[in-house]
Design a protein that fits this description.
This protein is mainly β. Helix content is 0%, strand content 40%. The strands form three sheets. Strands 5-6-7-8 form a four-stranded antiparallel β-sheet, with no helix packed on it. It has a three-stranded antiparallel β-sheet with strand order 1-10-9, with no helix packed on it. It is globular and about 40 Å long. The chain binds FE2/S2 (inorganic) cluster. The site of FE2/S2 (inorganic) cluster has 11 residues, from loops.
């Protein structure tokens, strides 16, 4: 498993990592929120595409949501719920993580 340091992500920003999730290698979005982090599979519930606009580059809306670059679905960053766009009410799949000793680790 790739372990990386929280400080590698700017506060409020995102990183894309390749982790083993449920026995498969998956692209995972890690979001930094101050001293904590949250993570989701990089799979949009609308049409199953990755969310980034370019490799490792995720779009954040003016109101602080993560926007899928494919068709504009916007996700709030607490529970990963789609709050606007074509899959409103659906959720990104959470990947449990913790920050310990400054490192983001998958639980
Ligand atoms: S695949 Fe994300 S909005 Fe369509």
């Amino acid at each position: 498993m790739t372990v990386f340091r929280l400080e590698q992500i700017e506060d409020g920003g995102f990183a894309e990592v390749q982790w083993q999730v449920g026995g498969a290698s998956e692209s995972v979005i890690v979001h930094r929120d101050g001293d904590t982090a949250r993570a989701w599979l990089n799979i949009c519930p609308h049409a199953g595409r990755p969310l980034e606009a370019a490799p490792g580059h995720f779009v954040k809306t003016r109101d602080g949501h993560l926007m899928c670059a494919a068709h504009g679905a916007s996700f709030e960053l607490q529970g990963g719920e789609c709050v606007a766009g074509p899959c409103r009410g659906q959720h990104l799949v959470a990947v449990p993580v913790e920050v310990r000793d400054g490192e983001v680790r998958q639980l």
